[in-house]
User: What shape does this take?
Amino acid sequence: MTSPTCFISYSWDSDEHKAWVRHLAIELQRNGVKTNLDQWDIHPGIDFIQYMETSIREADFVLLVCTPDFTRKANIGRGGVGYEKGIVTGEIFEGSASPEKFVPLLRKGMPKDSLPSYLKSRLYIDLRDDYKFDLCIESLLRHIHQEPEYIRPPLGKKPDLPHREDSQNKINGKPIKMPNLATFEQAYQFAYSYSGMNKDRQGAEAFAQLWLEKFFNKDFELFKQAYQFAYSYSGMNKDRQGAEAFAQLWLEKFFNKDFEVFKQAYQFAYSYNGMNKDRQGAEAFAFEQLSKS
Assistant: This one.
């Protein structure tokens, strides 16, 4: 099997930095990656431009050691780094290279200062901490050798997923259609809640089942609004049984009417500052106004 090849692009920030890059190249060579590095390959008489072009275009991977100086030179197109930037960006924008080919290695500074504009969107390997060098090199070698730490398991067969309408989607032995399950829960919770209808659990379940059987195509919020107004002391002041009966009557006969019309008419008819009718008279007046709306 042919060994992968790589080229290291970097700026000559200092002798210390050049020594670190050389150390990186040695580790790659030791671990089966044929590495092109100017410190090894450049000699008097060589065509440096051709060397850079050939090394970048023919390498399987290009490692870009990012520092603030590297970014400054790349962004202004200065020196070898600037020339290499033109070759790299050409391959990126032309789509002629694998998207995995160009790997930023963050060596110094913050990403916003050390990653040139053409690399800012790429995931980088953080090599700023020398104590984590071995761990990061392992990550880089896995990428180059295409040996990920975790691999996707093989795609299995579709499991047998039986319909469960006959077993789970029943209340008191009666099937509930799937689209109505959410409404059943809403009806049950309102019926069982102290701030709602205050039924016991058996009564709440019976009410929710009745809702699905009789009013499944109606808006539960409308029932809730009618019940609360009917039961409220500041509304019709009915007991819970009377409020439930009124709310069901509303759904059966007046669901397409505007409840606010009824509510306003009732409050005006019953109010001392309005018509001062009793509650029965106010209700009759409100239904009369509703029929005219």
